[in-house]
Amino acid sequence: MNKVRRKRLAEAIDLINQAKGILEEVKDEEQEAYDNLPESFQYGERGEQMQEYIDSMDEAYENLDEMENTLGDI
Predict the structure, then answer these.
(1) Half-sphere exposure of residue 30: CA atoms within 13 angstroms, side-chain side
(2) The overall pTM is greater than 0.70
(3) Above 90 in pLDDT, residue 65?
């Protein structure tokens, strides 16, 4: 791989890291909002939906992490 393509891959890895950071912030904010809900709401429809969002963000983070590792191996 030439220097130009390596540089573009490095840029892609940097963007993935930025996306991971943003995703982590949003997930933490959603988790904090969930934790601040009264317990009765946590177990209700709203709380369950929020927990699904948190779980989905965790999964997305793991996928980004895997992409970063794959690109780093190239």
Answers:
(1) 19
(2) yes
(3) yes
